[in-house]
Amino acid sequence: MVYGLLTFILLSACNSSFTPKPNGYFKIDFPEKAYRSFDTAGYPYAFEYPVYARVVKDSTFFGDATENPWWINIEFPQFNGRIYISYKEIGPNRFDTLVKHAFVLTGKHSAKAYSIDDSLIVTPNGISGMFFSVGGDVATANQFYLTDSTHHFLRGAMYFDATPNADSLGIVNAFILQDMRHLINSFRWKK
């Protein structure tokens, strides 16, 4: 009797249909695009950044002091990410070495990247540089540098405090990419 009941339950359980659920991600509500100016006294540069972000002075570089006092981070608390901005003066640093270093830092992601596209930047303010789009499950999908090639060199890279996943970070990367492009196009040197 017990075996018959157990057999009946097992056979009837096999007739139920199973529908797998696809992987999903949380819905993200993006804020409305609006910008404010970063034009702090003493800094050799100015630009516009999103009102839903904050600028924080960066005082350490992997535990060491930064090279100069003009390194900042643009933090996006809602997205748990930040754009690291480093500034170097040309003169104490060779221009070609700074450019090479920007390419090397981007190239460090080639182990996980399926593509690295670079494109020349020339902004409405006459600033030139390079923008790097890195495809794949990489720590930073968007990087850039801006320079006047004689005095100033600024590098920016967007990072998230999350395991790199191009699928889940893609929509946030695309949203912040618009902000990075606005920052670049509004950028100007002050000296």
Write the layout of secondary structure elements.
Elements lengths: L1 H12 L21 E4 L6 E6 L3 E4 L2 E2 L2 E2 L6 E5 L4 E9 L5 H13 L5 E10 L5 E9 L5 E6 L4 E9 L5 H21 L1 E2 L2
Antiparallel strand pairs: 1-2, 2-12, 3-6, 4-5, 6-7, 7-11, 8-9, 9-10, 10-11
Please describe the structure with a list of short key phrases separated by commas or semicolons.
191 residues; seven-stranded antiparallel β-sheet; 12 strands; Protein Transport Mog1p, Chain A; alpha+beta; three-stranded antiparallel β-sheet; 3 helices
Description:
- The protein has about 190 residues and is an alpha+beta fold.
- It has a single domain, classed as Protein Transport Mog1p, Chain A (3-Layer(aba) Sandwich).
- About 25% of the residues lie in helices and about 35% in strands.
- The chain has helices spanning about 1-15, 95-105, 165-185, and strands spanning about 35-40, 45-50, 55, 60, 65, 70-75, 80-90, 115-120, 130-135, 140-145, 150-160, 190.
- The strands form 3 sheets. A 7-stranded antiparallel beta sheet has the order 3-6-7-11-10-9-8, with helices on both faces.
- A hairpin with a 5-residue loop joins strand 9 and strand 10.
- The chain is elongated and about 90 Å long.
- The termini are far apart.
- The mean pLDDT is about 85.
